[in-house]
Structure formats: C-alpha cells, structure tokens
Design a protein that fits this description.
This protein is of the alpha+beta class and about 270 residues long. About 15% of the residues lie in helices and about 35% in strands. The strands form three sheets. Strands 1, 2, 3, 4, 5, 6 and 7 form a seven-stranded antiparallel sheet that branches. A four-stranded antiparallel sheet has the order 8-9-13-12, with no helix packed on it.
Length: about 270
C-alpha cells in the first residue's frame, strides 16, 4: 500500500476541548469559525488530524477523507471526535469486542442519523453521494453504533455514535471520502480507508475500517490490551474499533489483522497507508 494519494489538513493550533464547555460558547464558535475557514492542504504525516475539514488519510488513489464533528473539537492522532458533555458512555464501559446486530427499527434510526450527519458534514461536500449511498455496515458495540454508508463507485461515510446520550450531546466520530480512481479490491485484499486513534472525554479510541475483497469472510484484530476484536464484514466493507490507543501509529507503521477466507484458510493482512 502507498500513501501518496491522501489529502489531509493538520490543525496544530487548537487546544483540546474543555469538557465543561458548551457548544454554544464564544470559544466554541470561534474555534468552529477557524476550522471552517481553513483551506485544505496536502500533508503526509503519520498523525493526520483535523476538525470539520480535511483529515484522516484516504488510502484510495486520488482520494480524500473528511472528518466532521460539531462545534467543539478534540485534536488527536488520526481522528477528531465530539465529546459527550453529559450522560452517555464516555468511558466505553459498555463496549464489546464482538459486535452485535440491531433491530430493524434501531438500524433504520442509526442509518438515518448517520446520513443526516454526513449531509451536514464538510459543508455538504458529499451530499449527493450520501443521498444515494446504501448502508454497508450497521453494528452495535454496547451503547455505541457504527454505520458505514457506501456507493459502488468508492464513496464511504462512517459514523460511530454513543447512542445512549442525549440527542444533542452524543459523542461521535464521523468521516467521509471518495476516490476519483476507485477500483474493487482484490479477492483477498483489505484496503484501509480509516486507521488511527482519537480521544473522547479524555479516553482514547482506535479504529480500522475499509474495503474487503470478495473472498474475505472474517477479519479480527488481536489487541494487546483488549484481546481479540472482531470486525463487522458486510457488502465489501469491514470495520472494527476499540477503546485505547492500540492503533496510534498504525497508519504509518502498519497493523496486522487476521483474515479468514471462503475456503476456510486463515491468513494475515497488514493495514496501513
């Protein structure tokens, strides 16, 4: 995998968000204005970070990935998140290593919530893609839901949301991106689109997501801190996440995952940018 086709913006000047700060404060509004006025610029560093504009690096050729959030941002290595200001599950106490499905009603709610967030994110840059995207992944890990919306031409948008918090105070990580030269991954290939570590309420979160080839039937990560973490695999996409900073340097150093194929054989694949 190469890394010379990613577009990022690294915001170095924002302080980490004060958890007691409301999204309506002058500080929050000022930060948001600075974020929105920042022009995207290519950088090739191992810790891509940004709020509201270009961020977590896109693996696909000539692609770009946007991370979007609310008015208060935490700048971290790889991802940007909106903290839960009260309630919810900020310490990931309900998180599970093996994902579970959702009821039809909960799935529809999570998908619609992600779609609306994606439309608003990045100034509506991918609104058309979001509108036609189908839910490729919808999983639950405790109180947290993960949704990936995708199209057949390489767009994917992801939302990881604390579903237990108040509607306006939910912690969330969101990203979106599309390759201008997308091609389907090889039958046994994994191609990362999201890989890194961020923070929410001073607690770290690591995630890996991307495209999976047609011969891949299962993906898992052996975490030093959490044991085996099982990915959700659906419609040519995979996604997993876990509390902690396991994947802090994964984008540059690579991280090995276990892959199972249709014939029952098991191998490994290294995710990186």
């Amino acid at each position: 995998m190469t890394r010379n086709h990613s577009t990022d913006t690294l915001l170095r000047s924002l302080d980490a968000a004060d958890h007691s700060v409301s999204a309506g404060t002058q500080r929050a509004r000022t930060d948001l204005q600075r974020i929105l006025s920042t022009d995207p610029a290519p950088v090739f560093e191992k810790s891509p970070t940004a709020a509201q504009e270009y961020s977590a690096r896109r693996k696909s050729p000539a692609g770009r990935r946007v991370v979007f959030i609310g008015a208060v941002a935490v700048v971290a290595a790889g991802l940007v998140v909106l903290p839960s200001f009260s309630g919810g599950d900020p310490a990931f106490a309900t998180w599970t290593a093996v994902p579970s499905g959702m009821t039809e009603q909960d799935r529809a709610k999570a998908v619609e919530g992600c779609r609306e967030s994606q439309k608003r994110g990045a100034n509506g840059m991918y609104a058309h893609d979001v509108e036609k995207a189908e839910p490729a992944i919808a999983e639950r890990r405790g109180a947290w839901t993960t949704v990936i919306l995708a199209t057949s031409d390489g767009f994917s948008g992801m939302c990881i949301t604390d579903d237990s918090a108040n509607l306006f105070e939910r912690g969330m990580i969101g990203s979106a991106g599309k390759s201008t030269a997308y091609s389907n991954p090889g039958p046994r290939e994994l191609r990362a689109t999201d890989l890194g570590t961020g923070t929410v309420d001073a607690n770290s979160i690591s995630l890996a997501a991307g495209f999976a080839g047609s011969d891949v039937t299962a993906v898992s990560y052996q975490s030093p801190s959490r044991g085996e973490v099982t990915a959700t695999l659906s419609m040519g996409h995979f996604a997993l996440w876990l509390p902690g900073d396991d994947l802090q340097n994964a984008a540059s150093d690579g991280v090995e995952v276990e892959v199972t194929y249709h014939d029952g054989t098991v191998g490994t694949s290294t995710l990186s940018f």
